[in-house]
Amino acid sequence: MNSVKVSVVIPTYNRKDLLKKTLKSLFNQTYPQDKYEVIVCDDNRTKDGTEEMVKTLMRDAPCELRYFKVRKIGISAARNIGIENARGEIVGFTDDDCVVSSTWIEAAKKYFDDKKISGVAGMTLPLKKNEEKSLFTIVQTREFKEEGDYAACNIFYRKKALVEVGGFNEEFVMAREDADLALRLKEKNYKISFGKDLIVYHAVITKPIIPYLKSLKRRKYEVLFLREHPESEAKKDLILGFINKRHVYPIFFVLFITFLMINIIYACIFLLFGVLSYLWAYVFIDSDVKKYPLRIILFIRHFIPDLIRLYYTIRGSIRYRCLFI
Q: What pTM does this model have?
């Protein structure tokens, strides 16, 4: 007879050392060890030893630990493999760069005593104090303290609800899949609660600038999210991400990208005006001349990521046929 009540799903991709810390925190739970299982879904297209590490931990794991290789690309596909194989009536999600509190599962399980509750999200806090950014690195973490954040690094659902809506939308390969799922559930009148006693700590990761810039391609999934949920706050957030404090530079960059395929001279003119308007918005935003030198030094640091975000937003708008402005 199946005694598992809760299944915890962790998608992972080439983060063996961080994943090990996640698993150890899940082994140290106050919830009965025979009542929950941990499912690792490994999108391991490059061998980094994740499989060997997980299978070694299986030998002495205090709860059931299971491992699946994911054949499809993307975090949504990985989580769906976990849902499909989950034995528990409740499915919890966290990520391979998180450490969960010792009462995490026990606290979540209590919310489901109310039959009207189909999901519960919790608070996500940085694992340690944020480090100072340097010119050539980016410090990243996640922090969610309020109701309405449905981050899949700290959320639980009833499995039957997940099955009814078809799980995660696999079009969302690397971002916004969690908010999309939550809104689809709410559209079917499933109730998602929020619990401050569900606490997850997210790693603070320092990324070199090049990998960080590559990760900005997730911006196109903001457009996909807007297409799927046009009534959400996504449109406002997406637009204000570019046009804020007199930011007119996106207009010139759109014209630059457009004319780059038509006329190189006009393209260069629009690029020049784009750079000048960006300087106006970021450097000469006030009369405090003393701040200008530092702002000019940091200009490239802000300019290139914003240009890449805009590029992927436009690309997403074309691919998903969704005009975001």
A: 0.85
